[in-house]
Records
---
Amino acid sequence: MPKNIKLADPDFHVPSSIDLLIGAEIFWQLLCIGQIKRSDEHPILQKTHFGWLITGKIVTSQNLRRSTHHCYASISNNELDNKLSQFWSTKNYSDRQPYTADEKVCEEHFLQTIQRNSQGRFIVKLPIKEGRLIQLGKSIAIKRFYAFERKLHRQSALKQEYSDFISEYLSLGHMRKIEDNHDMITPHYYLPHHAVMKHSSSTTKLRVVFDGSCKANSGVY
């Protein structure tokens, strides 16, 4: 090491914690004119505003032991063509299994009901198995509502919140009352629901949850 050199980190060769990370936007502003390289076996000394830095490659005994490996590969155009043909034959995705009966019905339903609205969104009617609609009913919904009604009688605040919600649903047109002479021959289904109270909420403390995944007595949903 030249005697007139003042290193930015005199203990650069001793592992220690990092003091400062410098980004590339100011790194080049720290460099000064001055660089020393004695030989190919020595690292480079670079002058900076912090002092001289030692950088570059350090030659060790491992670097001196070099070995050379030679590889040779040869293939003809015919062999390459055959290999490519075999590759594409195994990657042929055009052969697919035939649709099942339900998949065919879904595809036909999709093609018949798909449309695009004025906002550019695609709309598709939900597929329904018409033959199983008759198996739906209202027994589970009524059973759950009776249990929920007993809870309302015990909690007056919850009852008031729930009544206000039902009244708002009626006024907004989200639901309507079914008359006694309603045609019950057509397929129908009563969606079970229950109320959830969140006292910590600053706006709406009651939220009504509709259980759309509830199965009917027949196991249909």
---
Amino acid sequence: MSQSVVAKRYAVALFEIGKGKSNLDQLEEELLVISDVFKNDETLNQFLDNPRVSREKKKEFVRNVFKDVSQDTLNTLLLLIDKRRVDIIEDLVSEFIKMKNEARGIAEADVYSVRELTEEETKQIQETFAKKMMINNLRINNIVDPSILGGVRIRIGNEIYDGTVKTQLKRLEQKLVTANK
């Protein structure tokens, strides 16, 4: 079974618990911190992957390091240690956030532009694409990419809307090449 399928199962379980207790926002914040810790602390990953360290020592360590998180989040971490699935934490966090956003009608968008977008431009993109996607809100992550020359490329989930000058020039070139044949 692939890691993403397994991660989704754990994320669904935690999501349902959070929905029942109305603490999805708190769980998301905790999971983001945990994900960040696991991404940036290689020694933590090595410790938890070490077969010579007992599960109980690993669990005790995790209880101490993440003592401020909710019991539900901590229980999920401890279960991942028991099942030797600590390596799926980043996928679990990603799936959890995706489910939470979907339940609230929120989508994440990566917007590539040649320069940092202004507040007005960001708001206009949010409103336009929220209507187009039939969602309540669109969270924008602006990525500056000077190679696109101008315009914007927007990625929402698996969909890409490309209005960049670079792409328009490529299309024009293709039309000219096929017209000359």
---
Amino acid sequence: MSLPIHLQNYLNDLSIQKPKELSLNFVASLQNNHQAQYSFNNLAVVLGETISLNTLEISKKIVTNGLGGYCFEHNKLTYDLLQTLGYSVHLKLARVLNNQDKQVARTHRITLMDFANKTYLIDTGFGAYSPNAPVLLQENIDQAIGSEIYRIIKMVNTKTSVVEYDLQIIKDNQFYTLYRFDLAHYNEADCDAGHFFSHKYPEAGFVNNLVISLKNNNQVIAIKNQYFLTRVNKEEKATLISDSPTLHSLLTHNFSLTIDKAITDHLFDRFIKGKINNEKETPYKKSAS
């Protein structure tokens, strides 16, 4: 069976062959290559652009035009490819916690995949902390993925008996909760609601921060507002973005984004200029996703 042209283009662009048989190795290669090539970013959000969740439009934006995107785009593209290839995949939504116990909406799209009588978490859209290989849905085991250590823990609400799961990563030598998900059924309409909140609600994180990242097995590069962040084999470094030309060079060279200098000036003035002298907290202690 041949793939639709937009999904075949996706594979071709990542230099991955359509698998002759389904395997975890293929999914891991897809995740790693995807995150190394297509930036996680919220540029379309902060620039007030229309963000379509139609797979053809996502493929055009991410694959053809190389503009990257955020979770509802990245994980929709990956989900549709895996489903078309014959993998047993299920759409889920998660609450982004960033190691805080707080009430938040389900604004992160992920995929659960059943394979060989086991279930795995697949995520190509969580930026700097996104796992770039399948995470086994098994409780309380450390899972080495690239240079990161992940684990999944079960959370049971004692009042309602609702079961949820936390995806955690080792950060600063201890486990840090990234997000919480459950096994309920979700559909594309649920994604539309989370997507609308994420890019239109005035107080949403992606509306008020500049976030960009690329990741492979050993290295992460990211921008979080006024800082350029790098993580190589767990060694972290933050460099202040001092002016608009520096930001433009990072966007065009490090992240391979085509962007006008006038837009870069706007981004610098809006997200960086006023914060350069006010940041007191080491930035990588915050989420870069």
---
Amino acid sequence: MKIAPIYDPEQRRETPQAEQVDLHVIFLVGTLLWLIPSIAFAAMFFLHGSFHREFMICIWGLIFGISGLVWELYNRHLYRLLALMQQ
């Protein structure tokens, strides 16, 4: 293990460049993945009449996913600009 990069900035490796990412796709896929089990649990609720806490977990996953999509819509320019500034 080399100790020189800790105290000598000249010995450090160059930091990697920031990548352009599209968080819209990530939030959308995650939300759709929460939608599948929530439909299954909703069907179980309507067929059997019993409420499962797993259904609420799926609903919270959908709420967080939709909130992430809304956040991404309003802040897309900020995180894209940050990646461009670091190049």
